Amino acid sequence: MGAVIDSVPMPHPLEPIIREAYAAFGRGDLDGYLQTCTDDFEFHVPGRCAASGVYTGRDGLSRIATAVVSTAGDTFQEDVEDVLANDHHAVVLARHRFMRAGEPRDYRTAHVYEVRNGKLARCYEQPRDQAAFEDAWGPAAD
Prior knowledge:
This protein is about 30% helix and about 40% strand. By secondary structure, it is α+β, with helices and mostly antiparallel strands. Strands 2-1-6-5-4-3 form a six-stranded mixed beta sheet.
């Protein structure tokens, strides 16, 4: 009988790159995040809340970052709980916490990415609880 060797699978090469991209975004370094993205990168936010929409490229990422700051100020925290990646897709499981209007907000979400040529091409926000997500960000402006 042969020996059984416990092995831990090697992470996909994109996994540590994504973790660093999220760390860069957390520091306010949009360029650090965008280095991992295609030029036509899109971030899709579902629902009917203040953050909902499609954000494209550097301008789009700047708009969503501005929206986060205007809603949460410097209280926004994004904790990366796990990263899964292969050559075609990546998923970031995250927890977002912040204060809005003096009230704590907390929800979990998944960022589901399409990967193209080793870069993040599209991201689809997939909140675990859509109602909690929309409540956290507030109603869309009419």
